[in-house]
Amino acid sequence: MRKLAVLFALMAGxxxxxxxxxxxxxxxxxxxxxxxxxxxxxxxxVAQITELASAGAYDGVVFHRxxxxxxxxxxxxxxxxxxSNMRRAGMGGSELPDLAAEFSEVPFDRGIVGMARSQDPNxxxxxxxxxxxxxxxxxxxxxxxxxxxxxxxxxxxxxxGDQRTGAIDGAPDVMQTVKVTD
Length: 182
Fold this sequence. Notes:
Blueprint (H helix, E strand, L loop, with lengths): L1 H11 L6 E7 L5 E7 L5 H12 L6 E2 L2 E3 L3 E4 L37 E4 L12 E4 L12 E7 L1 H6 L16 E8 L1
Antiparallel strand pairs: 1-2, 1-9, 2-8, 3-9, 4-5, 5-7, 6-7, 6-8
């Protein structure tokens, strides 16, 4: 009976354990960032991110908003692929539906990956951000979707933007490729 209970518990858990491998290039960062996606914390968000990454939607997307001591934001698959025209970067998303919030008890510490959204908590779509430093004021307000397991040195080297707005002056760093890993 106990073996059967363990089997059911395993079957009820996440069907996969996914991650992302992001190759970054630019004036600031050059290298690989490995992210462990937390499907047990935010299954809907992880499913959408892995679907977009598997389709190549994140390849060539810029880091469009980078604030020193806070975070680096990317993932605008609609308007974030033209480094020479950043006017609309950060305003778009994918053709997939927006997601309902999946808030958790996981704190926004250094290396945490969160989903960007508008003022509506249920508006996350494709954009995400990586924390340079703890930002506990975000706890319970944004969905945590993963954590950097390797490559924080690359994250730390991402070209910074304006300290107030995060807007990048000149050419932004780019996610050249984003692959789903097991």
